[in-house]
Amino acid sequence: MTTGEPGQPRTDRSPWNWLLVLPVVLPLLTFLFNADEPRLFGFPLFYWLQIAFIAVGVTCTTIVYRMTK
Amino acid sequence: MSGHTTELVVFVVLFLAVTVMGFVAARWRRPESIDSLHEWGLGGRSFGSWITWFLVGGDLYTAYTFVAVPALVFGAGALGFYALPYTVVVYPLVFLVLTRMWSVSHVHGFVTPADFVRARFGSPTLALAVAITGLVATMPYIALQLVGIEAVLKSMGITGHLPIVIAFAILAAYTYQSGLRAPALIAFVKDALIYIVILVAVIYIPAKLGGWGSIFDAAAQKFAATPAKGDGITLNATNQLQYVTLAFGSALALFLYPHSLTGVLASKNRNVIKRNMSALPAYSLVLGLIALLGYMAIAAGTKPVVGANGRPDANTIVPRLFDQVFPDWFTGVAYAAIGIGALVPAAIMSIAAANLFTRNIYREYLNKDATDAQEAKVSKIVSLVVKVGAVLCILLLDPQFSIDLQLIGGVIILQTLPSVALGLYTRWFHRGGLLAGWALGLAVGMWMLYLIPNPANGKAHFGGSAFGLASLGFDTTMTVYAGFLALIVNLVVAVLGTLAFRAFKVADGPDATRREHYFVDEGDPRVKDLDLTGSH
């Protein structure tokens, strides 16, 4: 490995990156949301909880972006 | 047709307005010369967060998606909602991968995933495999955008193929003229229209149908009454694994498509990409709501248009729903949103396909000393050829053929994952092992798709992507996404192949990239190098 430019990052490793695992895994765990009840504004759990996972994804990616930029 | 005059007028006016924009785009953020492939194909690589957001969003969430996802929800229920977890999972999944791809591409002047593979593994053959896979996967995708426009036209009572030919001729002309700038600019209009339509739809339609609760109840009732076991407003034992593997497999595949990468590489720096990974899920929310239009159609008692073959065309369900509940002028706006929504991805896909051909086939095998101007010229012509090919696909072949091909496309593009995505992380794999894994993954994927019947339309083969584990001898009704299984086979073969090639000391290709190339950012002197001929 030769020397890189000074001031340039040599890696994208960061403990914050682990936060990205959460929104990848959460929406794939069907047992969490595969039910009709409880409903929210008429939406069965299956739909409102998965829509809520969008917010989890946005939060996690935003935090990782801010902490690693 | 007389009942659709207002809709038609609004549709045509908006469509024409967008056409003018497409041609004006050549002057927008104009570079000194558009005659190099980087300028034409990648828009000069200078797009900031906002443009990237519109461009990538307009690229990934296509007209076909807007038509097909609710059609699937209408027909099968919860399984069709896989599009939501799919688009939630994808961004955190590719967050780090895409920034690495951006850096290494900007150091070496890569325009396509195959360019990267060529340099990373020193194998033109592997690069050719990746390029052809990308081309084969992208072509039917472009044709499907036409299916989206056709669904809208059918609902306005317009049959025949002439309007589609005109629409694509216009598209071809302004992409030829303006390159990536055209879709980037049009994406603003497309998204504005889509957001307005969906916002109105999710407030107005449920209010008319007695609220969300009764919409879901109506859907549940319909599915309970059908003999099919796989449907319902929640998942069951048969399709739960399919739901998860389909969402995850689709997420893995999305950014392997060459056209997704085109939008990403056109961004200004690494932070633009990272910021977009948290901003793009806004489209996921819209997509989730669009999917639920399928249930609204059930509750409203919407019937799809019956096609020339006597079978109902499920893809017309959303246009029919709009026609049924909205006033005519707003239906016109909604139709225009879908129609224009087809143009953006079709333009970007044809540019990406053209780049693949030019860089990885033309320059690699046909004209090794091609100049920048020659490359740009070939690319522009191929982009035209690709669009003509897409139109011919729809005119000459059964549209079902394009849908089948697109299904196959998702499965085969996944087979480039070990070379492209894992290649960004590790050089451990041997080029021979990767090639063997790719070939076997393809073979297994095609075999599984061939075995899948579709009882709904009586097809014996290529009837879907849900592979029954019973076919492998398991005593179960569970199904899995065929692409996912094929990828596992691919990975196993790539690992075993690599070990075998190493054991027999078969020569491996040189790696033209260095570790630090994967992390450089805008402002680094190495990033400025856009010299095409100096990339290898």
TrEMBL record, chain A:
Stretches that traverse the bilayer: 16-33, 45-65
Protein name (database record): DUF3311 domain-containing protein
Keywords recorded for this protein, A-Z: Membrane, Transmembrane, Transmembrane helix
From TrEMBL, chain B:
Subcellular compartments: Membrane
Annotated Gene3D superfamilies: Sodium/glucose cotransporter
Bilayer topology term: Multi-pass membrane protein
Gene Ontology CC: one annotated term: plasma membrane
Family annotation (InterPro entries): Na/Glc_symporter_sf, Na/solute_symporter, Sodium:Solute_Symporter
A GO MF label: transmembrane transporter activity
Transmembrane segments: 6-26, 47-73, 79-98, 126-144, 156-176, 188-207, 243-266, 278-298, 333-357, 378-397, 403-425, 432-452, 480-504
Chief location: membrane
Signal sequence residues: none
Keywords linked to the UniProt accession: Membrane, Transmembrane, Transmembrane helix, Transport
Family: Belongs to the sodium:solute symporter (SSF) (TC 2.A.21) family.
Name of this chain's protein: Solute:Na+ symporter, SSS family
